[in-house]
Structure formats: C-alpha cells, structure tokens
Amino acid sequence: MASSVTPTPLLKDELDIVIPTIRNLDFLEMWRPFFQPYHLIIVQDGDPSKVINVPEGFDYELYNRNDINRILGPKASCISFKDSACRCFGYMVSKKKYIFTIDDDCFVAKDPSGNDINALEQHIKNLLSPSTPFFFNTLYDPYREGADFVRGYPFSLREGVSTAVSHGLWLNIPDYDAPTQLVKPRERNTRFVDAVMTIPKGTLFPMCGMNLAFDRELIGPAMYFGLMGDGQPIGRYDDMWAGWCIKVICDHLGLGVKTGLPYIWHSKASNPFVNLKKEYKGIYWQEELIPFFQAATLPKECTTVQSCYKELSKQVKAKLGKVDEYFITLADAMLTWIEAWDELNPVAEKVSNGK
Predict the structure, then answer these.
(1) Is 300 helix (H, G, I), strand (E, B) or coil?
(2) Do the strands 59-63 and 39-44 form a parallel or antiparallel pair, or are they unpaired?
(3) Distance of alpha carbon 278 from its chain centroid, rounded?
(4) Cα–Cα distance measured from residue 169 to residue 258, given in angstroms and rounded to the nearest whole number
C-alpha cells in the first residue's frame, strides 16, 4: 500500500460477503482492494468433491452440499441445488448484521471518470441512510450529498425509515430474461445513471441477486431464494421470488428498499436457450404471481419478519397452490426455511425482535 493512511473499512466486523459458485474464484483478485478486509462465505454449488480455489489472503469459509446436509439435516431440502439460489444458505449461517452478495461473473465497474467503483461502500451508504417509501422525492435520495427534500415534501415524513435492502445495477450485460436476450443478443448497458431511489410502498420490483446488500437483522429471514434448479420445474426466479416476498413484508413493517447505485460490470451473458428452459414456466406463472403479491396483505398481529413470512407461506399455499402444485411444495419449503433459520439464529432473532 502506497498511502500512509489506510481508511478503516466500513462495517468490517459487521458484514459478510456471500458468493455462490461452481468454479475457482479468480475474480476476487480484482475485488481484493475492496473485499479483503471482510469475511467471505462461499456457497459451492454442484459437485461437492470438486475443489474450489480461492486466492490467498482472503478470510473465508466454504460450504458445499455435504456441509449443507450436515448442518441442516432433513431441513436441507429447502436449499436449492444446481442453482445460484443456494446462496441463501450463506445468509442463514452468517452471524453478521449485514450481507452483501455478488456473482462470480461480476467485475469491478468504472464510473464515468474512469475510477473503479467500490460497490460495497455504496451499498453500505445506502443501508446506513434512511429510505422514503411513503412519498417520492423527485431529486431521488434526499440524504445524498448535494441533494435534499424538494419543495412540497411533507416535513413529517423527512425522517424516513430504516433501509432493509440495497439493490445495485449492472453495466455491460443487463439482467434480461431469455426472450429479451434472444431478441437483443448484442445489447449492452452503457448508461451510468448516478442515482439511488427508494422503491415506493405498494410497488413491486424485479430483484436481481447478483449485486445486492441487505440488513440481515431487519429482513434476513425473508431473504429465502426459493426452490429452484435440480428437481424443480423452474429456475432463474430465485431472486425474483425473494424480492416479491421481501417487498410485501418491508411495506407491512414500514422498512425501505433502495435501488440504483452501485454498478458492477456484469462480464458474461448466460446462454439464452438454457435460460428459456429454466424460465419457461415462470414467464407465464408470473402473470398470476404478480397480482397475488400486489394484493397480499398481512395482519397487524404479524410484527416480526418470521411471523410475516409464515403468514405469506400460508397464502402462497392457499392461493398459488391452485396455479401449480409446485407452489404447495414451495410454501412448505418456506416454513422449513424459517424453522432452520430460527434453529441457527436463536438468540439474535429474539434480541432483534424484542426491540
């Protein structure tokens, strides 16, 4: 290090970085300046006998399918296999307040001035400043330097609410579904929009899990990425499912979700034909899933994330079970996930819910 003063990493002891992977993690080299001070949780998907190489100097723990089965026992059935949805196991075993999750094909992006973007630092800024879900500010995030609440913004709402989720974006390969990929195979996102905004209450959004941070104590138990991949009729809807669930629960509990900065550089497009096979059912199911989540309400007795999630799973079973029996299996897995979460996080949850 050339500089004499090393800046203190933000929340170094309060944040875990969760990475799902099936390959060697050479991509960490470029993230070294930003990630090295943090603890990594690597969730290895696929063949557990394969050795995953991690560059030297990183503090990490690695879990493969054998570890997941050993730790969760029969409840391991709720963790997806052969799908990046397995990352949520890392959320469950973490003991930190915050999680940042990133895919292994996401590289460091550059801002319009050519400087490397410290994605993690921006996520932390987003999470540590309030959200404004009840009234939209036309200058976007009013808590950023150089911005404020505009004329006409109610003073009673200017305190904002706690931010539970920070959803980042991607330069280069956009997060498109298979039909869009097929129609626009060469499209690249080159637009850097210097903005962070709160997603308004009552508005759902497509949550992408490849550049995402959240407050585990505020929303962790709802960050279940569903049943996808091996043995399931659907894939590539893991983060979408989690996003719809967390948004309904955040709206109910009065928590905020932000989207916008930071950008990462998404390096490679996945195969659109493989993607279409995985997404096929989801593409038409979502026409019924979205109205379900838009209409979902939670009773006022639900004051914890766990109780909200259990209630939501009941509604999934009752209403979406009619769409396909897969949703009955998924509703059961949602309950198994909560039981496993509570087993691994007994004290922390009682403390955070008893505030």
Answers:
(1) coil
(2) parallel
(3) 20
(4) 11
Q: Which of 18, 76, 39 is nearest to 343 (CA)?
A: 76
pLDDT computed for residue 95 by the predictor: 97
DSSP of 265-297, one letter per residue?
Answer: EE--PPPHHHHHHHHHHHHHHHHHHHHHHHH--
Report the distance separating Cα 179 and Cα 290, nearest Å: 19
Cβ count near 272 (within 10 Å): 19
Residues sharing a CB contact under 8 Å with residue 237, sequence separation 6 or more, in sequence order: 226, 228, 279, 282, 286
Compute the residue count for the chain. 355
Question: What is the mean pLDDT of the segment spanning 321-338?
Answer: 98
Long-range contacts of range 224-227, CB-CB < 8 Å, 24 or more positions apart?
224/78, 224/88, 224/309, 224/333, 224/334, 224/337, 225/80, 225/84, 225/85, 225/86, 225/87, 225/88, 226/80, 226/85, 226/330, 226/333, 227/78, 227/80, 227/85, 227/326, 227/329, 227/330, 227/333
| Mean pLDDT, residues 134-160 taken together | 97
Residue 298 has pLDDT above 60, yes or no: yes
Q: Residue 2: is its pLDDT beyond 70?
A: no
* CB-CB neighbours of 261 under 10 Å: 24
Which tens digits make up the pLDDT trace of 307-323? Answer: 999 999 999 999 999 99
pLDDT in tens, 149-174: 999 999 999 999 999 999 999 999 99
Could you count the other beta carbons within 10 Å of the beta carbon of residue 126?
27
Q: Given pLDDT bands bounded at 50, 70 and 90, which one contains residue 5?
A: low
Do 92 and 344 meet the contact criterion of CB atoms below 8 Å apart? yes
